[in-house]
Write a structure and sequence with these properties.
Organism: Solirubrobacter ginsenosidimutans
Order of helices and strands: EHEHEEEEEHEEHHEEHEHEHEEH
Number of helices: 9
Largest sheet: 6 strands, mixed
Protein name: NAD(P)-binding protein
Pfam family, one: NAD_binding_8
Low-confidence stretches: 144-167
Strand order of the largest sheet: 3-2-1-7-9-8
Shape: globular
Strand content: 15-25%
Length: about 300
């Protein structure tokens, strides 16, 4: 089955990963931006096709499939999943002469829409694929694979190397990824101590925690050279270097990894502190202010999870 995914944001890439795990499907992702950046190597290994600078101009639906016009040329697919912002999805429908309101609906059981801007894009992707699977039994999802044998032992050693044991810090990994990532990233947190500890937990090498003196060009150079950067998104320490890191993330389209905790671990106390590792996401705006707001919103959401988990 040929499946098209419109939009290479975190929801679209998550859906591509789930669909790409089934070799019966030929999955293609279309993104208008020239650079997608981030964790896409695993998609290539699954056989997913990623088309950059690919403008999906309009679509047409019939009983047997859907046609997408991409940069002026029509291509035929059995299914299409639109994983763009609501404004972009509506614009696509208008250009296609289809006046439908967006929601969890499908067009003729051939074009589906994923929830955009969800707190958990991976779950939004799974929900969209579940709707597709309900109409098309050949489409199925697979559970997230268990961590490789022995990974827990390595992480335990890494925590001890960071000076805190599992008795003090409990990790809740919601990322859906194996660590370390295979690409440079921007790590954001709500507290400074998390950035001192988590690199050991995730086995991240070359992570640079930003200081006030770090310039945007230097941060961009760090990412382009294959290194990662980290900063605190809340409080006075978030600026100016936080804006610089966000601007660099926009410039190179690097994945952003959110981290959050409630409280701080103390050796004198027996209770542990939860650190929630969120799913990496990509900038979906060209506004530095909007991106900073998005990062704060995600981190605050994870902080609430750290309290209730």
């Amino acid at each position: 089955m040929r499946i098209a995914i419109v939009g290479a944001g975190l929801t679209g890439l998550s859906a591509a990963h789930h669909l790409g795990e089934d070799p019966r499907h030929a999955t293609s992702v279309f993104e208008t931006r020239a650079r997608v950046g981030g964790v896409v190597d695993c998609l290539f290994r699954l056989g997913v096709t990623l088309r950059r600078s690919a403008q999906v101009e309009r679509l047409a639906v019939d009983e047997s499939g859907t046609d997408l016009w991409i940069n002026g040329l029509a291509e035929r697919f059995d299914l299409a999943l639109v994983a763009t912002s609501p404004a972009q999805a509506r614009a696509l429908l208008v250009r296609s002469g289809i006046g439908r309101r967006l929601g969890s609906m499908a067009l003729g059981k051939r074009v589906y829409f994923a929830e955009h801007g969800a707190a958990d894009p991976g779950e939004a992707a799974r929900a969209a694929i579940a709707r597709i699977a309900a109409d098309h039994p050949t489409v199925r999802t697979r559970p997230v694979p268990a961590p490789p044998r022995g990974e827990g032992a390595w992480r335990s050693l890494a925590r001890r190397a960071g000076g805190l044991t599992g008795a003090h810090v409990h990790y809740v990994d919601l990322s859906g990824h194996a660590w370390p990532l295979g690409a440079p990233a921007v790590y954001i947190a709500n507290q400074r101590w998390i950035l001192d500890l988590v690199p050991h937990q995730l086995m991240i090498r070359g992570l640079r925690t930003l200081e006030v003196s770090d310039a945007t060009n230097a941060v961009t150079g760090q990412l382009e050279a294959g290194g990662s950067v980290a900063f605190v998104v809340e409080g006075a320490t978030a600026t100016p270097h936080g804006c610089g890191a966000a601007l660099a993330a926009l410039a190179v389209n690097a994945p952003i990894v959110p981290l959050a905790a409630k409280g701080r671990p103390e050796r004198r106390r027996r209770e542990s502190v939860r650190v929630v590792i969120g799913e990496p996401f990509f900038p979906e705006t060209s506004s530095i202010d909007e991106l900073m707001d998005d990062m704060r919103m995600v981190v605050r959401y994870l902080e609430r999870l750290a309290t209730s988990t």
